[in-house]
Specification:
Layout: E1 2-9, E2 11-12, E3 20-32, E4 37-40, H1 44-56, E5 66-69, E6 74-78, E7 91-94, E8 109-114, E9 131-140
Parallel strand pairs: 7-8
Antiparallel strand pairs: 1-3, 1-5, 2-8, 3-4, 3-9, 4-6, 7-9
């Protein structure tokens, strides 16, 4: 079982998304609702699929990545998707069918859309499973 750490850039989670670069620890998402969030460690084949997706979308995943082996198969990440206590969500979710939060509030877990380098066109998420990333470090990009 594995997790993978990457940088993430050029993404949007609501109308007011800022230009950010974040360091993320990624997991496979098992279930998501407002009451429950269940994450899984990647198995070998899903990890390889996600690494290929990263390689195809290099602007969104700049820099190198590293894979960590883990003994945890799955775990709950948070109980309620309450408003975030920070200026950012704690968790970012990549999905084939994202539903962006178009309000002003930022929740602990937000669905995101990968964007091109000009933030004009969305990048297709081509994997058959959803992933969730925990933001470890972030910085705002200066214009």
């Amino acid at each position: 079982m594995y997790t993978i750490n990457t940088q993430l850039a050029y993404f949007k989670y609501n109308l007011d998304s800022k230009k950010l670069i974040v360091n993320i620890k990624w997991f496979k998402l098992d279930t998501f609702s407002n009451l429950n969030l269940q994450a899984l460690s990647f198995n070998k084949s899903d990890l390889e699929l996600f690494k290929r997706f990263i390689a195809k979308n290099q602007p969104n995943f700049p820099g190198s990545y590293f894979v960590e082996q883990t003994t945890k198969e799955g775990f709950a990440m948070l109980i309620n998707n309450e408003l975030s206590q920070s200026a950012l969500p704690y968790y970012l979710i990549l999905s084939k069918n994202p539903k962006l939060n178009l309000g002003n509030s930022i929740y602990q877990a937000e669905m995101i859309i990968l964007m091109d380098e000009n933030y004009e066109f969305p990048i297709d998420y081509t994997l058959d499973f959803e992933v969730i990333g925990k933001i470890e470090v972030y910085k705002q990009v200066k214009e």
